[in-house]
Amino acid sequence: MLTGMSQKELAKKVGISRSVLNEVEAGYRDKILRPTLLKLLTVLDKDILCDDYYRFVLEQEEKLKLLVEKYGLRKLARMIGVDASSLDHWKRGDYQISRRYFEKILELNLLSQDKT
Question: Where is the HTH cro/C1-type domain (predicted)?
C-alpha cells in the first residue's frame, strides 16, 4: 500500500515471487535471505520494511564476528544452541541466520552487551 503498487506489481518490480512477498509482509517467514531483503530495499524504505531481525540480517557477518570475538565460536554456539559449524557459516555469510536463533541472541541479551 505504501508504494502504491499491488503485491503482484511490487514482486515483479523487485524480482521475487508474490508468495515470498506475501509471507514477508504477513510476518510468516522464519528467515529472509539477504539478497531478497536487498531487492525489497530498492523499492521500500528501510524503516518501514525492517524490523530488528531484518536489520540484523543486513549486518549479520559483522555482528556475529564481534560476538565470536567476545565469546569464542564454540562457547557462543553452545549459548545459542547451534553447532559451531553453523555459527561459522552464518559469520562468514554463507548462510542466513533464522529468526529463531536471532531471537535467542536477543533473549540472552548478547547484542546490547556488545553495543552492536
Answer: 4-49
